[in-house]
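In practice, a research group might receive sequence data for several interacting partners and want a quick structural hypothesis before committing to experiments. The following worked case mirrors that situation: the sequences arrive first, and a predicted assembly follows.
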Amino acid sequence: MTDAAVAALPATASRPPRSQWRDVWNQFKTHRGALVGAAVFLIIVLLVFAGPFAWPYSAELIDIRARNQGPSLGHPLGTDQLGRDMLARVMAGGKVSLAVGITAMALAVTFGTTIGVLAGYFRRLDNILMRFTDLFLALPLLPLLLVMVMLFRERLASTFGPAMGIFLLIVVSIGLTAWMQTARVVRSAVLAVKQQEFVLAAKSIGTRERRIVLRHILPNVLSPIMVSATLGIATAIITESALSFLGLGFPPDFPTWGRLLYDAVDYLQQHPERVLWPGMAISLTVLSVNYVGDGLRDAMDPRIRGR
Amino acid sequence: MLTFIVRRLLLAIPTLVFISIVIFLLLDLAPGDPLAQMPLTIPPEVREKIRLSLGLGEPIHIRYLLWAQQFLLNEPLHFIERLTGLNVAVDGQRVISWQTRSPVFDIIAQRMPQTLWVVGLSYVVGVLIAVPIGVISAYRQYSWFDQIGTFVSMVGFSVPTFFTGVLLIVIFAVHLGWFPSIYDTTHRVTDWNSFVFQVRQMAMPVAVLALYNAAQISRFMRSSMLDNLNQDYVRTARAKGLRERVVILLHVLRNSLIPVVTVIALGVPTIFAGAIITEQVFKVNGLGQLLITAIYANDIPMVQTLTFIFACLIVLFNLIADVLYGMLDPRIRYD
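A structural hypothesis for the assembly, expressed as tokens:
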């Protein structure tokens, strides 16, 4: 954590100046699993977002004469019970699943970081905010999520339209139930950074608290935030798929990976391969993201870095 | 230690009150109408009477207190009555499910054994697999066993249970036909054959949950072992000539188990939540499946009670984890 401060000093004449992010990258590169994970994740993101432009079939195109086909050249992943191309549907589902994962993670991390920084920096708020976090940690999250989605689905769907309403509902409910770990990690990091001399120096030249937090504290606790953000994507994707799998996620004409898996379970006997594609997509994404998170954690830890 | 437990128990009360209020308010603010599924031919005044009989006429704080009285006072009294035959709960109103019009706790008591068997067994199996894997992985760090073990635990931790479950059904029930894909709850174990059938139908759900649990616990076990293997006391134990097996199994393992035991205790309530999905996959009619059907049917008392029970489990196991930590680790004393 002192690396930013060290790097800001004039470097010793012989060596080129080292930046913190260069160090992080060098360490990250040595973690093979993380590199592979990052590559796989990027490929998935690229396929999901750019793929539909290159693929002739749309996810909604119903071709009833070509229904229930197995994998073939024209339809590499086959077609579903309405003759919709599975590859197009998996790509469309991935777009929603990834969007939900990333947005929900962003919400959870923003919320968690705010709570964590406030609790860590302002002693007065610490106790009450951490009790609040503990209370949230004691909530049974999956049942509550199910209840929330069930209860507010209709109302939001009528206000924002079926797709957008459910998207907002799922993102907000996942975000609201996933911020606690981030808050705790950030708080402990802030508590450690707060004691250091450069914060004291900033205080003594009369920097305002808001500026100290934003310019001095926050950049130095970025590493735990990034790690929990990465892992947060994985949890959010799994949670969304679980909700869809239980039939409480997106509506049926709106594919997500979890929803595709849920629909495919009905045809398990006849077309077992249809379960595989969305399931593999979820698993591969989550696995790669978790590996990236592992690698980032090692790379960001100055005690491990350089060993 | 006793004062610590008492203090924690007292602290748990406001937590539980807060959680029950959150659950109650969330369900109360919901737009769903419990009478929505009744026939439209019911005249409005009768409809109003049904609403009153369901207790929907009172203001919200009264209803909350009534629910609390039913949950915390009448239900335990009924339980005592059933247990001892004493007539203590004469006319106490029990929590009634809107769906079945029978007491919620009776239904929960029916569903509990299935969940406990599947979930409990899978947790035990998971721990039994995870601990040796974690120990060997750490002891032979970076060996092929460790590489494979870490990879498998990463996979088990990343692949969601609803996919592993469905995958197992595809392989072992559809293709190979070894295990039934649907859990038969009415099955009674009476002789050897029915016992074998019970084992076969439990194999897949238990395997799915056990893999997931083992993946998480073995990661903790490995890192905890790694932390301890470099400690000075290990060198001392080796230096005084103890055999390697004694050093690892007696000295290192016992110390590394301390954090792992608390993780295991903390994991118990999350397992119940995870079992919601597994029960849905294998059609086990346990508590999780009960919750899902209750949510679909707008059965608010049932959902409230089940969610609150889950919350109580979380608080209880947090307490157990803390107490265990204090008991196992002599460096930690709460008084």
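Before designing any experiment, note the following. The radius of gyration of chain B is 24 Å. DSSP finds eleven helices and no strands in chain B.
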